[in-house]
Design brief:
With 171 residues, this protein is α+β, with helices and mostly antiparallel strands. It contains 4 helices and 7 strands; from the N terminus they run H-E-E-E-H-E-E-H-E-E-H. The chain has 2 domains: 95 residues, 2-Layer Sandwich (HIT family, subunit A), CATH 3.30.428; 52 residues, no CATH class. The protein is globular and about 50 Å long.
Length: 171
C-alpha cells in the first residue's frame, strides 16, 4: 500500500469506473453519499492550480460524462460537483456527489446580493492580473490567445477546442 489515499484507491480495480494514462475515476470507500465518484489525476498535483490546463479540461470532461451516467441510471434528486483543494490530498480531484432525498448531507450557504463597487473591484483586479490574455497549456505546448471582444476565448486555428464545442451542445 502507498501512503497516498488516492493512489491506493486507484489501485483497487473493484472501485475503478474509468482509467486512462492521466486520470482515474473511482468509488471512494469513504463516500459521502451513495455512488459518490472521485475523478483524480494519476500524477500528484496538490491543487487545480498546479495541474496543466489540458488535464483540468479532460478531468472535467470525464466528470461530465460520469455525471450523465449517474443521472440517467440512478433515481437522484440532484448532483453536486466539488473540486477539492488541500485537505491532505496530493492529487487534483473532482468529487461527483449524487444527491438523494434525506441523504443527510448539508451543503448550504446563504447567498446575498453583491456590492457593485466590490464586484467592480474584483473584476478590475482580475482584468489587471490577466492583462486581457488567456494562456492555456495543451499537451506538449502553451497557447496564448487574446480575444478582442469581452475576453471571450476563441479556438486556435486548426485545433478543435473541446470546451468551446461543449458550449454549443446546449440551446
Amino acid at each position: 500500500m502507498n501512503k497516498c489515499k488516492v493512489c491506493d484507491a486507484a489501485a483497487a480495480p473493484r472501485a475503478v469506473l474509468f482509467e486512462d494514462e492521466d486520470l482515474v475515476a473511482y468509488l471512494p470507500e469513504d463516500a459521502v453519499t451513495t455512488a459518490h465518484v472521485v475523478v483524480a489525476t494519476k500524477r500528484h498535483f496538490p491543487s487545480i492550480f498546479e495541474a496543466p490546463d489540458y488535464l483540468v479540461a479532460w478531468a472535467f470532461a470525464i466528470a461530465n460524462k460520469l455525471s450523465k451516467v449517474l443521472i440517467e441510471s440512478l433515481n437522484m434528486q440532484g448532483l453536486n460537483t466539488l473540486v477539492q483543494i488541500g485537505r491532505g490530498s496530493e492529487h487534483f480531484t473532482i468529487n461527483i456527489i449524487p444527491r438523494f432525498e434525506n441523504d443527510g448531507l448539508k451543503l448550504m450557504w446563504n447567498p446575498s446580493k453583491g456590492d457593485m463597487d466590490e464586484l467592480k473591484n474584483v473584476q478590475g483586479a482580475f482584468n489587471s492580473a490577466t492583462s486581457g490574455k488567456w494562456i492555456f497549456e495543451t499537451k506538449g505546448k502553451v497557447q496564448e490567445e487574446k480575444s478582442e471582444k469581452n475576453n471571450v476565448l476563441k479556438p486556435v486555428a486548426g485545433e478543435e477546442n473541446y470546451l468551446l464545442k461543449q458550449l454549443h451542445r446546449y440551446p
